[in-house]
Amino acid sequence: MPSRVRSGEASDAISTAGLGVLGAVAEGRTHGFAVAALFATDGDLGRVWRIPRAVVYRELGRLEAAGLVRPVGIETDGPGPDRTVVQVTASGRRGLHAWLDEPVPRPRDARSALLLKLALLDRSARDPSTLIAAQREVFTARLERLRADAAAAEAGSFDQTLALWRVSSTQAVLDFLAMLMN
């Protein structure tokens, strides 16, 4: 689910991939090739969220257009073509920090967006406790609603099966978050 990141007067929907790229750029001046390496299958962030090189470059263009990153130079040494070096803007950093503290809405987003947020928080040496606490609050309330749905569903129906799956998935994420707090 795209998040809203404010850029100047305009508000643009930035995809999770774009926010991941923004998080990588926020670590320091870099270029698209280096960011793509982080999100490659064997990259540090690719273990959590794989972003193909073409998507990294597309997202960098979108982030620049939104005023969240800006070019700061050209790297001409090394193999391959010249590379545009970018850095995060103040607006980009504010938007990134807001997104990193925002809980994901559904348990299915925990495997992707939540783990990406936790990885970026770890890489930036930021305390994840604000995100974890907010995430526990969201999923605790969700679990109560899901348990009521499961209890109200007709026994043996697919509605009950689906409700029980959602209860189990939500509880699993809550158990995971509890382990992180220890």
Instruction: Please outline the major beta sheet.
Output: 3 strands, antiparallel
Rounded to the nearest angstrom, the distance between the terminal CA atoms is: 29 Å
Broad shape: elongated
CATH class of the largest domain: Mainly Alpha
- How many domains in all? 2
InterPro entries: WH-like_DNA-bd_sf (IPR036388), WH_DNA-bd_sf (IPR036390)
Protein name: PadR family transcriptional regulator
Name its key features.
about 180 residues; alpha+beta; Arc Repressor Mutant, subunit A; 3-stranded antiparallel sheet; 7 helices
Task: Describe what you observe in this structure.
The protein has 182 residues and is α+β, with helices and mostly antiparallel strands. It folds into two domains: 3-104, Winged helix-like DNA-binding domain superfamily/Winged helix DNA-binding domain (Arc Repressor Mutant, subunit A); 129-181. 57% of the residues lie in helices and 14% in strands. The protein contains seven helices and five strands; from the N terminus they run ββαβααββαααα. The protein has helices spanning 16-25, 32-38, 53-65, 90-100, 110-123, 129-152, 158-181, and strands at 3-7, 10-14, 30-31, 69-75, 83-88. It has a three-stranded antiparallel β-sheet. A hairpin with a 2-residue loop joins strand 1 and strand 2. The longest helix is centred in the last third of the chain and has 24 residues, at 129-152. It is elongated and about 65 Å long. Mean pLDDT is 92; it is low at 6-11.
